[in-house]
Amino acid sequence: MDDSRKIHFAILGAVEGESRPFLPLLSSSETFQVRGEMFYLGDHDGCSVLLGTTGIGKVNAAVTTAALLERFSISEVFNIGCAGAYAQGPLRIGDVLVTRQALCGDEGVLVEGGVLPSEALGFPLVVLGQEAFFDAFPLDRSARFSKILQEMPAGFYGPDGRPSSGEQHFQLLYGPSLTVGMVSGDAEVAHRRFSRYEAFAENMEGSAVAQTCFRYGIPVMECRGISNVVGDRDKRNWRLDAAMLHCRAVVQKWLEIR
Questions:
Q1: Strand 220-229 relative to strand 96-104: parallel, antiparallel, unpaired?
Q2: pTM to 2 decimals?
C-alpha cells in the first residue's frame, strides 16, 4: 500500500463495536493493521476515508493516533464512539454530543479538598505558538466545526441526520466532554465529577486523541453517542446500538459538508 497517498478523513473509534457501524459508508475498502489495530481504507463521496480502532483508553488512543499521523498524510481526524451522560446534565440515552472542549480528567493536583487544575503544576500539556493548553483542548475553533455548527445546529434529529420532531429523534448538543482513565463506578462518583468539571458526558479516549492531534497540528473533532448514564454499570440499561446509529448519522453529515 502506498502510505504517501492523501487521506481526507480518519474516523477513529476505540473498539470494533464503535467503528463497525461506519463500514457501510465506505466503498471498495482495503484492510490492514497498524500497531495491532485493524483499519479500512476506502472512499466516501469522492473523499478517501480511513476507518478503524485505536484500542481502549488514553494510552492506546494516543499511540495509535500518533502512529497513523506518522504513517499517512491525514487532513482531519474524527474521534467517534459511545459515552456515558452525567445524570445532572442535559443529555439522555440515545442523544449525541459533539465536543466543544475535550477535558482532561486525570491531570492536575490531587489535594484533600479535591483536584486543582494542572496549571497549578506550571507545565502545559501542549504549547502551540504563544498558546498553552493545560487540561482542556478546544475542538470548536476549526473552519469545519463552524460549518457543521451552522448546518447542524443543536436540536432534534432523526436517524437519517435530518432535523426531526417525530418519535425516532435524538437530541444533538455541543458541549464539554470529560476523558478519564477510570470511569465512574457509581452515582456518587459521577456526581462529584460533574460538580467539578460540569461536563456533559464521560469517555476514555477523547482528550488523548485531541492532545495527539494538537501536537501534530491536525484538525480534530469528536462525536459521541450516549449509550448509558454515567455511574450505571448495569449494561442491561445501556443502548449501544442506538448510540452508535445516531453517532453515525451525525458523522455521515460531516463527511458531506464541504
A1: antiparallel
A2: 0.95
